[in-house]
Automatic annotation (TrEMBL):
UniProt catalytic activity: [(1->4)-alpha-D-glucosyl](n) + phosphate = [(1->4)-alpha-D-glucosyl](n-1) + alpha-D-glucose 1-phosphate
Cofactors: pyridoxal 5'-phosphate
Function: Phosphorylase is an important allosteric enzyme in carbohydrate metabolism. Enzymes from different sources differ in their regulatory mechanisms and in their natural substrates. However, all known phosphorylases share catalytic and structural properties.
GO cellular component, one term: cytoplasm
Listed name of the protein: Alpha-1,4 glucan phosphorylase
UniProt entry keywords in alphabetical sequence: Allosteric enzyme, Carbohydrate metabolism, Glycosyltransferase, Pyridoxal phosphate, Transferase
Residues bearing PTM N6-(pyridoxal phosphate)lysine: 646
Highest taxon of source: Bacteria
Amino acid sequence: MSLTVTQFKKDFKKRLHEKYAIEVEDASNVEWYGALGSLVKAYYSKSLRKTHKQYIEEETKQAYYFSIEFLPGKMLKSNLLNLGILDVVRDGLKSMSIELEDVMEAEPDMALGNGGLGRLASCFMDSAASCALPVHGNGIRYDYGLFKQRFVDGYQVELPDSWLQGGNPWEVRRENKAVEVRMGGTIALVPDNSGNLIPRYYNAKVLRAIPYDTHMVGYENGVVNNLRLWSVEIPVTEEGNYLTLEERQEVENITAVLYPDDSNYDGRQLRLKQEYFFVSAGLQSIVNYYLRSGQAIEELPEKVAVHINDTHPAMCVPELMRILLDEAHLSWEKAWNITVKVMSYTNHTLMAEALEKWPTQMVEEIVPRIYQIIQEIDRRFVADVSEQVGCDIANRTRIIQNDHVHMAHLAIIGSHSTNGVAKIHSDLLKNVVLHDFYLLYPERFNNKTNGIAERRWLQLSNEELSGVLDETIGKTWRKDPGALKLLEAYRKDKKVLKKIAQAKQHNKKNLAAFIKQEYDIEVSSDAIFDVQIKRLHAYKRQLLNLLHIVKLYLDLKENPDRHEQARVFIFGAKAAPSYDYAKTIIKCINEVAAMVNHDPDIKGKLKIAFLPNYNVSLAEKIIPAADVSEQISLASKEASGTSNMKLMLNGAVTLATLDGANIEIKDAVGEENIVIFGLTTEEVYQYYRNNNYNAREIYENDPTIHRVLNAFIDGTIPNISREGQEIFDSLVKYNDEYFTLRDFNDYVKGQETIAAAYQDTERWGEMCLMNIANAGRFSADQTVERYAEDIWHIEAVATEE
Ligand code: NBX
């Protein structure tokens, strides 16, 4: 949009007057933020209406991304960037003695997600709007997002995230789009006048679902899509729906708080209610919208695609069936045909403990009609498959097994597409984990390697590097991340390498100042900034990183004058509150940090900064300053990873196992520009097959590993008598589930390669450049375009910009 500084200042002052009755100079940053947020929303409201109208008039097919998590982070700067008014607003504010950065401080992170899965959903929303694709999000408006993390005596402490307290300028409550969701009670099927069996509900609870819309602004293209998040309310008054105080509380709990587990499935009733709540509300509103256009329900797949992001929204399958059967009165066959055409599903994990299986009794109790439909889907599936392929395969793939509903089976059987999130992950789905389903439905399986919103992860968070890119290769990369490839021509150009290195130095100094100010840790920007930022989980092996740090420490203690490349190890990681082992690792990292950071023998060659409360905003500060990207999960465990993509885009060199998208990163940058170590997936599977992994033997025969592990139990590392023993036992006594000891020496070698390369400035500079230049293929723009074409069958709309 076009906006002048003068006009902006006028608008901004007016907003402050209207909203807070205050002058610019008397307002706090919270008021500046509130006014600016609502002004920006007004700026894009015309585009919003235009996009909406265009979709209706052109009868555009639209896709709806159902996800129980969205993790957008802060929205102000991203909206300014995408509207093309970032500089005007920054200059306008400055002329009123306001720093945009100070206004941004007042915005809380919107953290309605745990990690990769939720952040991916938000990257897709940004990219879809920016590619003019008609894609909307559907999820839950939690009153409390992911907990805030503090460290007390090195332990993780969780505090509530009351992100809505100061008001949320981006959302719009859509009272008139509320729908009702039924839960509980019992069902009887009674014939109506024409003999159709119609379900009658007894004692069901009727909940009111209120949508709050947050708008997704495309990058300089005038497209504005919608992220619809549902909040529960108790219906005003309905006879027979009188609720006691406890019952009201129970209802309100449904959208109160995000489950903080990112890998273990938590089989609580409330979670199942959350899942059904947003699925039912979302599908009802989509069908209502569709029917208002006057089109026939039979044509639904021509105009609507529904995406199931992991299994949490898998009840989309029986819920759409319910709507088609009970409300549109279609036959089972017609309804099933439509449902399978509309639905598609993404799998995000191979870890068995993350797979959702709900006890049938619980499903029947909470969503009785849905349970009936699931039973019928299961019955027909078993009959078909047994007849056509055989009973064994039918029994292994059916939805209901051992009194549990297998949500992944439901999602695969009830949709036309199942995809993994990186090549190796999709291959493992086909060949191992979901092999039986692959035999039944080979055509349904496909890969969609994840991507990232490169605007947020480069333009917005790394202005310094963005400037260098503009000077070197022009500005096309800002719209087309593929154009980053143009940088490759400069791989030997010392001037360009120097500029990139200077941008990195600038960002490292900023991060160092932040770390000093917030956590009183002194770090030198001359050291390697080695970064591992992701959820804390045993399979991601933060412990491998820690073991190496302890080794470096012990080496330096033995020989304080040893010439060692200075390193700062930066961690950011939250542990699920119920995941004790992950919390133990946090405590150990913090205690090693306290020990190392204050030891004068180390002479500053080694520093550890475990920054608390890792979230999107902190990621935006860390990533531009990273030299090394730690992607060290045990091969075959990380479905894709996305911080690996963000870090390479910002010129960090990846130190990685051949896992998830690391493999594709290696292919993109070439072997000489990445450091690979560790077991391959095949080797890991071989250990499983032969059942011959022996961690104790490694501990007993490898003197380095022996010495490092002993440091956890012999008092070398203070204050971890319990935790150190737990770590030691997990590795030696319980045979090291994620082969940390097996990969240790190879990892150490990898770290040595990194240190040597870093000392050769030109070599290192070239590696950084090659990473930036080849990051374009991991743009989420490309990823959503593949989903659009191959899975959703939707097309971009015409735009004027
Ligand atoms: O999804 C992550 C994977 O671990 C990553 O490898 C992948 O890159 C990313 C995006 O595809 N999975 C993930 O973040 N899962 C969850 O957050 C999660 C949340 C709730 C739950 C299970 C998993 N019940």
